[in-house]
């Protein structure tokens, strides 16, 4: 893969020793020259346990360079024109259309479920506006059994892998068809079948867990990798640094995928860090690293495919920093107009939207038209509304489910609480909408 990747490599010296019986004198001269060269090298190259580097007699401090930092790898411009044809991954028309349909379906689902929360029909939601290419481009470069640890804004990865609209809506409604049986907040998806670990709310806790799973994969030698998604805000958590260091020192097959969307809820990047983003931390931890245009689905795909190749063949962690922009509010609990301008959001939505860029690309290839696009978007709306209606009509899980699936054997204190709850519900059954719930 031609993607520019910063490599952290080890160099090995190979010495060839000639046959002593036939070349005794020349061999002795070679050894003397080698010792002299080694002594000279030792005088200029430090051999500390913690670092091996050249000495210098200049008193100089390394300075951060935020203007000429790690370059951003890209494949196409905003109009869908490829810069270098060797970088086009040459995917089939069928695969390209799957990408586009996944991105647009996700966008439609976001609009409808966001509005449903505003109407009080679900309790919470988070959109993926502006980050669709980071989801689909990376998901397409993985194997189906590669394990995914998400943060909370990676619904497109699940959609690409086959998570259905009914499953998305059932989870957000917490009904009897929800795999989590209503125990999680909306958008906390998970799927054993699709190798997607259930989302958890605390920030960055998935990162050291992902490093541990990758170490288990290394020991199993199963040829699989772990990919761990996180935002640039999560990279400020201690768990992120622990995960980077564990993965690097244990040489684990893991891809750390950072979605740098400009904001950690309301905190802009200039208030989060002073260095050259998140990518610069990769080499510091001994990880292969690349920075990619996260609004360019082809660039994300190439970078993730190359990263997976390194992780599998070399048992090494790789860091990808995808530069993108969060067009939507952080969540339904957030009003981003309080900390950023409407003009700023409008620029990214109209000038550099990942779906628009990919649409231009497939239209240039002649595999998608404006008429097809209109028909497809009308169809996506119908599909989402139908799944939404089915989810809304389904019963909620029985209230007794709150006591299950935490302990293998229910402890005495929870047994007592359950009995008290049963007595309470029986006494005040006319006060609760029990008809909306599955019977206990």
Main traits of this protein?
alpha/beta, two-stranded antiparallel ribbon, seven-stranded parallel sheet
What fraction of residues sit in β-strands?
A: 5-15%
Task: Look at the helices and sheets and give the structural class.
Answer: alpha/beta
Q: What is the overall number of helices? A: 13
Could you give the order of strands across the largest sheet?
1-8-9-5-4-2-3
For the record, give the distance between the C-alpha atoms at the N and C termini, rounded to a whole number. Answer: 56 Å
What is the string of helix and strand elements? HEHHEHHEHEHEEEHEHEHHHH
Oligomer: single chain
Q: What integer value in Å does the Rg equal?
A: 27 Å
Say how many strands there are.
Answer: 9
Low-confidence stretches: 1-28
Largest sheet: 7 strands, parallel
- Mean pLDDT across all residues, rounded? 91
Coarse morphology: globular
**Helix content class:** 40-55%
